[in-house]
Amino acid sequence: MSQDGFQRETEILGVLSTNPDQYRSQGLDVELMQIRQDREISQDPERMSSLPVIPLHEKQSLASFQSTAEGRELSDWWKQVDGGFAVQLARAQSGALSIIERIGDGRHQRVFMTKFDRDVSEKARYHIYNELTMDAPSLPTPVDDAALKAFGSSDIGAELVRSWGATAAGRIGLIHKRVDRFRRALDSQADFETFLNWYETLKPAEIKSILGFLSR
Question: Who is most buried in 101, 153, 179, 185, counting CB within 10 A?
Answer without folding.
Answer: 179
